[in-house]
Amino acid sequence: MPTIVHGFDWPDRLVVGTVGLPGERSFYLQARDGRRVTSVALEKEQSAVLADKIDELLDEVATVEDNRFSVPPSAPTELHDGAPLDQPVEAEFRAGALSLGFDPATAQVVIEAYPIDDEIEIVAETDEDGEEIEAVVEIPEPAELFQVKIPVGTARAFVARTREIVAAGRRPGDA
Fold first, then answer.
1. Exposure string (b/e) for 1-20, b if CB count within 10 Å is 16 or more?
2. Pairing between strand 144-151 and 4-8?
3. What is the pLDDT of residues 147-171, one digit of tens each?
4. Which of 116, 100, 101, 138 is nearest to 43 (CA)?
5. H helices of the chain, where?
6. Which end of the chain is more exposed for a tag (fewer CB within 10 A), N or C?
7. What is the rounded CA–CA span in Å between residue 86 and residue 61?
8. What is the pTM (predicted TM-score) of this model?
């Protein structure tokens, strides 16, 4: 069966947002292009790590010698998005794995989310003494894929908002 791809090449909006009260919040990665809205459920930790990794990727791209990309050092003010998630929030799936890349042809950050898959198999290879020498993860072709491509300025704004959303559930004094 072919993979269902929820793809957004230049979305009008990409945000992490929540539904619920602090301590009971559900996190979502949501993209919108015109009237089409797609949401994927995330864990709070996945949201935080995604923001950190995008920030690291942008910092790395900015330092490439003979860089032809103009990567802003921080989120452009005009790209700040403080609005709530588009309603109704209905997740296509819960993200089990996320991947991140950079497309130099379009100067866009590429984010992919894959659903949790109970069919993932870990195969351990052992040496002659029975000691594990390698573990290979066999991942079947996913049934669905959420893929979003965003320009670097939008990516910086995404990082800033995501960090605000993750921190918003913390009470003063919590780590």
1. eeeeebebeebebbbbbbbe
2. parallel
3. 999 999 999 999 999 999 999 976 6
4. 116
5. 44-62, 152-168
6. C
7. 31
8. 0.82
96-123 pLDDT, tens digit each: 999 999 998 899 999 999 998 755 566 6
Tokens 């003494």, residue located: 129
Which residue has tokens 């921080």? Answer: 74
CB-CB contact of 89 with 135 (8 Å): no
Q: Rounded to a whole number, what is the distance in angstroms from the first to the last CA of the chain? A: 44
What whole-number distance in Å separates Cα of residue 85 and Cα of residue 78? 19
Q: In the block, which residue shows the tokens 């890349």?
A: 101
- Confidence label for 33 from pLDDT (cuts 50, 70 and 90): very high
Q: Which two tokens stand for residue 17?
A: 């947002």
Closest CA to 107 of 81, 144, 70, 73: 70
Q: Where does residue 94 rank: exposed (0-12), middle (13-18), buried (19+ CB within 10 A)?
A: middle
DSSP state of 100: E
Task: Compute the distance between CA of residue 23 and CA of residue 30 in angstroms, rounded to an integer.
Answer: 21
CB atoms within 10 A of CB 118: 5
